[in-house]
Here is the input.
Amino acid sequence: MKEAIFKRKTNQREVILDIVRNTKCHPCVDNIYDEAREIMPRISKGTVYRNIKLLSQAGMVLELSIDHNVLRYDGSTHTHGHLLCENCGAVTDIELTSVSELEQQVKQQGYKINNTIVEFYGLCTKCNIKKDNHSN
Amino acid sequence: MKEAIFKRKTNQREVILDIVRNTKCHPCVDNIYDEAREIMPRISKGTVYRNIKLLSQAGMVLELSIDHNVLRYDGSTHTHGHLLCENCGAVTDIELTSVSELEQQVKQQGYKINNTIVEFYGLCTKCNIKKDNHSN
DNA sequence: ATACGTGCAAAGGTTTTGCGGTTCC
DNA sequence: GGAACCGCAAAACCTTTGCACGTAT
Here is the structure.
């Protein structure tokens, strides 16, 4: 039922998808662009923007807005959570087991769910330990 | 432990907070600005940006990034979910009962949580019904 | 009186887009 | 060969910021 978003296969798009799938750091477009240029020096930032948007529309990557300053992308599309560390700024994947129960609640209220995002704002494990040491 | 963010009380900030608290539509800055100008015609958009940012830093409103194009604000700061309707663009509040269990999982893994956001992407009740009628 | 907040406008940063050239099919 | 896609640069947007003036305390 999903229309064909990509009419042709291109090297650029493959490189972009590869980069996002092979990192755990939830890169923004600039990060992807920098890495892509090492493989393909003439790629343009516009191409990265265009393709990453298409890839997320196609459901092949996840577009994250957890960092309110910039969109980040995630190559794992299964339902999982993210935590933004308010100390170091890192975005960490969080595996969650009981999201489907939450979704069940919502569906019973008459909504249709295509995708669920769970975001936590706080401290990652490293920064949480540091905080304990210099605690106040 | 929270430092004083506001050194003075201003009319502008009160109007802004009032607007966000008295709507369920999760307005963006432009929406707030338009409404504020009806009460206070000389208010500037910069003031809205400055104050809404301060209010969210103070924890008095929630800054939502569910609509990836623009930041929206929510006057309800208790933990609850949101659904972005991919058909009509509306953002709906979703009351959720079991978020604390999710948070428990995450805390046990060594993270500290200050805030939790649950977002659903799909169809609101109205659009879901329509979809059924013209179903394919 | 004084320093905090506002209004205005310019600047900053991210993302989109128009266009001519290139490439995939 | 022709449509789809790219590279480049400009434009569009959202948001922040500097500065002079106004205002709450």
